[in-house]
Every structure is written in structure tokens, then in C-alpha cells.
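Good day; I would like, with your permission, to put a structural problem before you. The record follows directly beneath this note:
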Amino acid sequence: MRTADEILAALGSEDGRRDPMPLFAELHRIGPVCRLRPGSSPYAVVVNGYDAAHDALKDTRFHRLLTADPDPKDSVLRRLGGSMMFKNEPEHLRMRKVFQTVLTPRRLTGFEPVVEAIVTELLDDLGKAGADGQVIDFVDFAYRLPITVIGTFLGIPRSDLGWFRDRTKAIDDYLDLGGKAPERLAAANQAADELNDYYARMIADRRTAPRDDLVSSLVDSELSEQELIDNLLVLVNASFVTTMNLLTNGLALLHDRPELIEQASGRAAEYVEEILRHQSSVQLISRKASVDLELAGEPIAAGSLVLILPGAANRDPAKHPDADAFDPGRQDLQHLSFGAGPFYCVGAGLARMEGRAAFGQLFQRFPGLRLAEEPVRSRSLLLRGHQSMLIRLE
């Protein structure tokens, strides 16, 4: 049996990035919280059990952190660190409450017909691109849907949406495990600066000419302008990447189970939850113990860094029988793909809505959709998705 240190090292390899699931199974055999050898990693423990991960994610004594030693010269760290995603209490709650006042269930429900209409429009485009058996990349649809939805919600012009893709990718590449190379940091800093300037211009415009969009609802909130910019940057990044991976991961799973495709439109909600459980978009979360504490019987000293693996927790056989099987009909569809407790993803409702709309319509429109070749996984271990997914609609 390999040690937890050896398994963690294997996760960063090409094979581990492509398919970490066998490594997660090895961690489960060791225990829900695996101690790492001092000096072998920045982390003291790896958390892979469902209950342990759930407890750690909801426990505010485990502090969020962007980096153990932030450099104030790095704009990507300033921008991300200024958002509620990387704030601890009470600052996190103060910012979150502002967004919760505008991201109400009623507002989201009212936005659902808009999401359905966007899906229909983009599937029309997909049909035109894939006419006559042309091979097309499903990743393009998977990107366009969430970025168009969040852009419409925020009030970003459609003509600007393509501009965001490379900039958000540069930031995500930096956040990946092993992604702190100087060239990645430089690209992420430049992307953060450009996004900062974009949102600053957008906020200035809404102050003088308010519209019926989310940014207009937030410009006069208690958030400072820089706090609003930082949170918008993270909101757009997080909102489209999660849904993009949900769509490509889901299509890959369903393609391997054609008997489930006929039921997809009527059971889209269940399918979305099982896709999120089986193939969590976010695979890694870092926390820092603010005090001495204990997790699943394992003592953790104040100041220790903790690596939580939602993707492993969602595959914990102690929580989900036959956890590696994709089964939308399983009785318990609970997962940690959106976190837990006070830090639960503020955009989870929108992501679910997009997934339901997409899988509710996709196979009705294109019942003969199939993969043209084996999809190419992205190299990111942090965010599990696809770099390309070539399909035919015939």
C-alpha cells in the first residue's frame, strides 16, 4: 500500500490529472484524514472522507487562504484575496449578505425562462455548425452557455464575452496545484489587471446609467468599489468554469450510458446532481487551521495547512454505495461539489439551472449526438473538465 505522500505526488502526474479516481480510492483505504510526512508537502493532512470533508468545509475555524505567503505586488492575489471566496468571518459574511440580497430565489426563478431561451438559441447555433455531419467541439457550447448566462445576468455585452475566456483561464491555471510558475503568475497578474479595469469602467457606467442587471443592483451597496470589482472577477470565473465542466463531464458520462439518454429531458435535475457528485468540477480546496482542533479523530495543530478533496469525498464508499458508478437513480445524491456550510457556493442555484436547461433540451434536439473521438481532458487537477470534446449531431 502506498503512503498518502506517494499518492498525493501521483495526483500531480499526467496519469493522476487525467484520472485521479483510483488514487482517491487508495486514500479511502488509508482513512478519511491522511497525515502527510512533515516536509514532504506544504500540507499536514489530506481530507478525502465525505463526513470529514463536510465537517472541514463548514467549520469556520478552518480558514480560507489563497496562498500561505501573499506578495502584495501580485495583482491576482490582491483581486482574489479581496473577494468573499477567500475571506474569513466576519468579512466573508458581510460580503455574502450583499450578494444574497440581490441573488434571491425569486430573482433566480424569474431568470429561468431567460436561461431556457439562451440554451435554445445556442443549440440552434450548435445545429447550424454541426449540419451535414460536420465535427464540432462541444466545449465551445459548454463555454458559451454559462458565460452568456452570467453575462446577461450582470449586464456584460455579448460582444465582450469572448474576451473573458483567455483571461479567466490564466487565473485558473495559476490556481491549479503546481501552477505557481513565474510565467503563470505573470499571465494571471496581467489578466487580473485587465479584468479589474473592465469592471471599473462597467461600474462607472452603471452609476451614471443604471440598467436592469445585477451590477446596477450592487453599485450602491455597502461594498466598496474595489470589493465589488474583486467579487465580480471571482463570480464570473467561478460561475462559468463550474457549469462548463458540468456539461462536458455529463456528456461524457451519458455517452457511455446510452440507455440513460432517453430519460435525460425528464430527469435533468437528478442527472445534474449525479454528474456533480461523480465528476466534481472542483477537486481541491485548501484550508488553514486557525486553532488546534481535531478532524475525524486526527489532531491538527493551529497554522497547519489542510488539503480537502471534494472529488474524493464524493466517491467515499462509506457515504455512497458503489460510489464509482454513475447512477442518477441512487437514493442519496448529496455531494460537496458546491462546498458546505457558510461557505456554500453563492452561484450554485444558477449552475444547477443551466445544467437542467442544457440536459433538458440537448438530446431532444439531437437524439443522435455522439462523440467523434475520445475527448481530451484538461490538465488541470483543480478543475476537472475537458480541453476538447469533438462531436457529431447525426
Q: What stands out?
A: The CA atoms of residues 21 and 312 lie 7 Å apart.
